[in-house]
Amino acid sequence: MTRIGTPASRVDGRAKVTGAAKYAAEFEAENLAYGAVVSSRVAKGRVVGIDLRDALGVEGVIDVLTHENRPRMARSKKAYEDDIAPGGAPFRPLYDDKILYNAQPVALVLAEDWETARYAASLVRVDYEQEAHVTELESQRDEAFDAKNSPKPRGNAEKAFAAADVQHEAEYWLPIEHHNPMEMHAATVIYEGKGKLTIYDKTQGVQNSQAYVASVFRLKQDDVRVISQFVGGAFGSGLRPQYHLPLAVLGALALKRSVRLVLTRQQMFTFGYRPGTIQRVALGAKSGGTLDAIMHDALAMTSQYEDFTEHVTNWSGALYKCANARYGHKLARLDLATPIDMRAPGGATGVYALECAMDELAVALKLDPLELRLRCYSDRDQNEGIPFSSKKLRECYRQGADAFGWDKRNGAPRSMRDGSELVGWGMATGIWEAMQQKASARIVLTANGHAEVACAFTDIGPGTYTMMAQVAADRLGLPLENVTVKLGDSTLPQAPVEGGSWTAASAGNAIALACEGVRTQLVRFARKVANSPLADAKPDDAALVDGRIVSKQDSSCSVSIPDAMRAANKERIEQEATAESNDDGKHARYTHSAIFAEVKIDEELRIVRVTRIVNAVAAGRIINPKTARSQILGGVVFGLGMALHEETQVDHRLGRIVNHNLAEYHVPANADVHDIEVIFVDEPDEIINPLGVKGVGEIGVVGTAAAIANAIWHATGIRVRDLPVTVDKILG
Amino acid sequence: MINFQYARADSVADAVRQIAAAPTAKFIAGGTNLIDLMKEGVERPARLIDITHLPLKDVTETAGGGLKIGALVPNSDLAYHPAVEKRYPLLASAILAGASQQLRNMASTGGNLLQRTRCVYFYDVATPCNKREPGAGCSAIDGVNRQHAILGHSAACIATHPSDMCVALAMLEAKVHVTGPSGERVIAFADFHRLPGDTPQRDTNLEPDEIIMAVELPAQGFAANYTYLKLRDRLSYAFALVSVAVGMELAGGVIRDARFALGGVAHKPWRDPQAEAVLQRQRPEEETFRRAADTLLRNARGFKHNAFKIELARRALVRALAQAARGTPQSQADKKIA
Amino acid sequence: MARTVRAVMEAEPTAPAPEKLTVTLVINGRETRLSVAPWTTLLDTLRDRLALTGTKKGCDHGQCGACTVLVDGRRINSCLTLAVMKDGAQVTTIEGLAKDGALHPLQQAFIDHDAFQCGYCTPGQICSAAGLIAEGKAKTVDEIRELMSGNICRCGAYVNIVAAIQQAMGKA
């Protein structure tokens, strides 16, 4: 039996290693047409003419859709808002002649095969009337406006900063980053006839996509079924319905045929991204190493049509004791697509700046950076003035430092060497919200002792299939192989998008609740068995263990599940339950981590090698340590890319992203990744939710870039405050 | 990708005949760069002539003690060829520093010479580029130019040549055997690739109707004292910011002969006889290496994002010369710089 | 006012469809004859024509390795390979690695070491690792990392991928 807390191999592992797992572009349909998107070549203005003659002249082209000839779409901007939409008016692909950003879709070619569609797309001639554009964040400092819901201040930070013994103040820059999941965004729309569509979509939320399509195309919700059983990574790019989805539906409605649309890798750079930011962090401290003042201001980019906001600046309130704090968040409008959440949105960004600033403050105070964190440790969330549901961050610091050997660090920069290489040791803290969303799960238990657990969540890679099976197996007392999982289908019980590290808590607790209902029924059935040893049992008197209903008082009193069901004349038990957060505002809910990084840098050539990372994580109860470790490993690699490689380059004259491919937009390769050790600190949490689960999808990335940047300072004595830390910035 | 016709060549003569008959045709071998560029709409050949069946796949000894490498020998086979590993380890090292094993398994020797630049504007048909469309203008000069040239660039083009293998071949002073309608000829490696000047659309001096038959290596392989040092933005599977190929001959504690070529810095693998001359008959000491580097970079000029390459190239050359002199060539697997 | 200039759909096409050529590919041991247009890559042939969707398209430009298959025993990027150029070739895809329902040692090792998350790069990683083992050039962990660097994993499973390959090489 595989209980919660024991490592389990992925239940969908075989499907993934044999190629049997099918992703959005891999479903077949009769008479399938293929789409190819034509992208704008200018950043702002409008389309004044489109010449389709050459494209339509290509044999095999069925049609080319533009804003002028497409089927009807909703007029109201409101109709395009999805669950995750920020304030503003969403982009409406092929809606009108307006160009809102460079490389936005302007036409959709539909052909009998992909190659023909791609060729014809290159023949569509579009004329534009251009307007002046702006894509550079820094140039918009003075035009930026306050984001809504900026966190509230406490005390008087300016005054305390001015009066502090030691001050550190600096700006930290982060570039635009793109998610670049390995699978490109795609949809296969099956035209079922009678107004019905079945859509295989690359998305993090099938019901979000379903509602969007129904709303935009004025279809009945029940006539639109969205399926996404395997998702080739997303990291946030699939939180909102991206334009491939409405365009594929447009194609299907126009042709009355099934349509497959796959974006190109280049087009993966034509929608959401992690917004570039310029952050100012000012820390004032007493000479003894306690904080008096924190001022954290962010300038972030958004589009001309939506106000994308994330929590960037107030993480220090949950980490470090400080009576005076002020946070600011401004948005600048650029002629780019709206940003979208990317793995640990806001946290990866804000904690990078905060944790580099803390490192710099430690230097100014002549304190070990870990010691500074301990002196500033906060047992209360000062933003809200409440205690934590649990916070084993001290344990993370201790166990992480022990595993890393932090006590052997010589604090002086350039003081540690390995032959011709400078050695740098840096550390940082990580923090992320432990959230739970309302979700429903359904259990169907059959008399043969097999259970099916179903929930509409998607599995974008964290191991949701396995997690769901494990929770059900644990609570139903069944072997893991007796549980099958259904997910990623809009017809299944309600689930929000998979994101925010909330899936395990949201689906897990719903499953646990449904299992309780199953148990209640089973105890009732067990009482009906002739001479039942559980004749007087109440639901809470019995547990489900090894396929039996067992008395908690006397484990020798038990009834097998088949016997109980036979006695009740039942073939199956179906139980659906909905769980939602018990958050009453009395406790702050966070995961924490401590990251320790070692870099080795050739003294002359300054090529950085990240040779070792230890990440100690406190994330409540870990359902599956095997897949959870992988999540942290992946987060660390994501953070490594953020620290050293990733930068979306925009030619501001053209207002166009130019390194829109995987050869020039670097993400870490195998050779970049060496030893990574993951530690899960024991963190019982009775408050957060019945399972005590917090989620681990994002915590791994938060703080990692700062730990590496701090290690690079320790190695070289050079403080780089704009990521990525490429060789040119540390040549010295 | 445009709709093109496909034909096979049965022999070299047939290939030459076919290309002469169809001026908009291109040869295809490994296809790793050509197919990529065709998908981007950068290359638009009306016809592809498949030369993969031609008998150009052998590595043979030459009378002069060198090796003749057939144009269709895959990059990976060449890197792992026993004679290359033993006598030209620099070439093996440079090949293994480039691309990925999958691409090296596909890419041919001749095709590697004909790789086109990775300039982001060259690749994006929505932007002006003189190399792609003569007269359109160079977007890189005042644009995103981190990857671009610091030596030998022109007002028309600041692109770099992306090959690693060619940097080694330039240092080794290989010869390129080609044939065309007017017969066979041999092109010295230094004359094979061109500087951009005012015709950046032409990467090489190969005529459009010529085909590469073989690359010939001279006897001198510098197997004892060599290195290929490649510096890039991630530790593998990335194009060079700067790379250096060095071959050195030492005798009695003195450099009897030394040559070097740089990649990632110019429109072609960069050789500089004047800078190499600084090393001749000198002791292999850092001071001397520095002087050679200063000479090499005397006319270097960077742009907004790539000026750092001048200092990086200086340091890379000094280190690469030291690696070669010490007999501790750079490993392409262990990323610690030797 | 924007104007879309459209052709009359019923008119003769000005650009006729490419002439298809017949090729024979031996895919996972099975001889497959098909007619393909010259511009169709081996990757699109596998995915769109033969429903062998285990081979993935991650970039279509040789920059990610998701499309890795073995052709005549060597690992290559199928996205940059024209199907018409591989007439007569032996192609092994992820679907051809398991024999009689028994997983290939690499497939089992990937499960054992949790060497994937989303699974999208996984078939390419496994085919690439099969090629790596056949090449016999990777002895050290550094050599495995370097020679597997043509396969990008955005979920960041590299540590586990290397461990899985070591297990399959009998070094675990």
Biggest β-sheet strands, sense, barrel of chain A: 7 strands, mixed
Oligomer class:
heterotrimer
Helix content of chain C: 25-40%
Architecture (CATH level 2) name of the largest domain in chain A:
2-Layer Sandwich
The CATH topology of the largest domain in chain A is what? Answer: Aldehyde Oxidoreductase, domain 4
What portion of residues of chain A is helical?
10-25%
* Top-tier CATH class of the largest domain in chain C: Alpha Beta
CATH fold-level assignment of the largest domain in chain C: Ubiquitin-like (UB roll)
Name the largest protein-protein interface in this structure: A-C, 84 and 72 residues
The parts of chain A where pLDDT drops under 50 for at least 5 residues are none
**Average pLDDT metric of chain C:** 94
CATH class assignment of the largest domain in chain A: Alpha Beta
State which percent range the strand residues of chain A make up. 25-35%
What is the alpha-carbon Rg of chain C in Å? Answer: 19 Å
Distance between the termini of chain C: 68 Å
Average pLDDT across residues of chain A?
A: 97
Compute the number of helices of chain A: 15
Structural class of chain C, by secondary structure, is: alpha+beta
Number of strands of chain C: 6
